[in-house]
Amino acid sequence: MLKSDFENLKILVFDLDGTLVQSNQLKEQIFFDIFDTKFHPIIANVLNKYKHASRFEVIDKILIETSNSFSDRDLNQLTSAYSNHLIEKIQNIPISIDTFKNLEILKEKYRLFLSSYTYKNDLPIILKNLKLDVFFEAFFGYPQKKEMTLKNIINKYSVPSNEVMVIGDGESDRISAEKNNCHFFHINDTVFSAAANACDETVTLAAGGTEKRYEMNGVISLDRSPSDILGDMMTSCAGTLFWGQGSWQLKVGEYTSSVKTFTVDDLRSGVTLETKHSRRDNFNIVRGTFNDASEDYIQTDYPEIRSATFISNDNNVESAIDLNLPFTTSSVMAQRLAKMTLFRAREQMTFSADFGLDAFNVQVGDIVGITNSRYGFTNKDFEKSIDSFSYCFAFFIDEIKDSKLGKSINTKKNEALITPKVGLVYLDLRIS
C-alpha cells in the first residue's frame, strides 16, 4: 500500500475475534463444554473439517455425527447454551490497554465499524461487556456475510471502496475486502506474537540491572500520515513492517537461524559482485535524539556511537548520520539501536544472481544459508532485506554468526562501544 492510500482512508472495518480479542480458542472450547465428553473426538474432527463455519453450522454437523435424529429444539437449546457460555466467558479475556488507546486515536480520524461472525444478537452484549461498543458507529454479525456487510457500508455512506480498509485475521475478512475492491490489513497473530516475544527478551546491562530488548513508547500526532507514524515506530525495534504471502509481517532486529540453504545448483545465472555503498556514502558515526524517561521524556541526545576502526578505514575522515528515535525512552536502548544501524551499514557488497523457484517463499527478514566455493561462502547467513523491487530480492549477510547484531549490547551510559567484527553483504536474488 502506498502512502497516498493511507492518507485517503475514510472508513476502517474491524473484525472482532482474533483481531481485537483473542477469543478464537475460547469459541472452539465452548463446543466441548456444551457436549458430553464422549462426543469430544467427533467435535474435534468437525472443527478441523469446518474451520470457518458458524456455531450453528458446527453444532448441526456435530448433531448429525452423534445422533440419527434430532429436533429443532435440540439445535436451539445447544445454540442458546453456546451463546450463554460465550457471553459469560469472553468478558474475562484480557484486552491490551493499547487496543483501547489505539481505537480512541483512530476514532478521531476515521469512521470505525465492526463486522464479525459472532451471532448478531450476542454481539451488542459482548461488545458492551468488553467496553468496545463506544468506538464503533455500527456493528454487524452473523448470519449476514462479511462481503455483504462491507458492500452495505460502502453504499450507505457513499464512500469509494479505495477509501475503506478491512482489518482482520481470517479468510472471510480478506475475501470481503477483495470482492469490494477495498484495502485489507491482515492481522497475523503468530507473526506479531513472535516479534513481541523477541522485544520482551531481557537484556543485561553492564551498569547493572536489566531492561527489555526493545520497547515502544511515544505520542502519536494525528496531523502526520499513518505511514510516517509506522516508520517512526519501527525505529524503536530495528523493525520492518511489510506485506508478504497474503498478510502483514513484522520482523524486529534479532538474529534467527537460517530457514534454507542455497548452493550453486540453485543458480540460474552467473554471479555479479559489487560494492553496495561508495566510500562517499559510508558513515562511521551515528548520533541522534530520544525521549529520555529519566528527564520527564524531554527530547535529548543519546551518546553518539562511533567506530575508531571505521574512521581509520575512511582515512580518518569522520562522517555522521542522524538517527532520531521518537519512540525510544532508554539511553542504553537508543545506543543499542544506533550501534546496529552503524554496523549494518558497513562492509557491504551486492551479490546478484538468478535463482530457481525454491527462493520464492523466502520472506523479508528470513535468514538463508549461501554456499559458493568460488567466493568462499560456506553456509553463510544471508537475511532478506526490504530493499526488493519487482522480481528482485535483496538480502544481507551476517558473515560472523557469533556477532552482536541484534543481540545484547552491554554498555554503561556514555561509554564508548567496542566494534564487533561484523561484515554485511547484500544479495540481489532474482527468481527465474
SSE blueprint:
Layout: H1 3-8, E1 11-14, H2 24-34, H3 40-49, H4 55-66, H5 72-90, H6 97-109, E2 111-119, H7 123-129, E3 138-142, H8 146-156, E4 164-168, H9 171-179, E5 183-186, H10 189-200, E6 202-204, E7 210-212, H11 226-234, E8 240-244, E9 247-251, E10 260-262, E11 272-275, E12 285-287, E13 289-292, E14 298-301, E15 305-306, H12 308-313, E16 320-322, H13 331-344, E17 349-355, E18 367-372, E19 377-385, E20 392-398, E21 424-431
Parallel strand pairs: 1-2, 1-4, 2-3, 4-5, 10-18, 12-16, 17-21
Antiparallel strand pairs: 6-7, 8-9, 11-17, 12-15, 13-14, 18-19, 19-20, 20-21
Number of strands: 21
Biggest sheet descriptor: 7 strands, mixed
Report the portion of residues in β strands: 15-25%
Could you say how many structural domains there are in total?
4
- End-to-end C-alpha gap: 25 Å
Class per helix and strand makeup:
alpha/beta
Q: How confident overall, as mean pLDDT?
A: 80
> How many helix segments?
13
* Portion in helices: 25-40%
Q: Assembly type of the shown chains? A: single chain
Spatially, the strands of the biggest sheet line up as: 10-18-19-20-21-17-11
- The radius of gyration over CA amounts to 26 Å
What characteristics describe this protein?
432 residues, alpha/beta, Rossmann fold, 4 domains, 21 strands
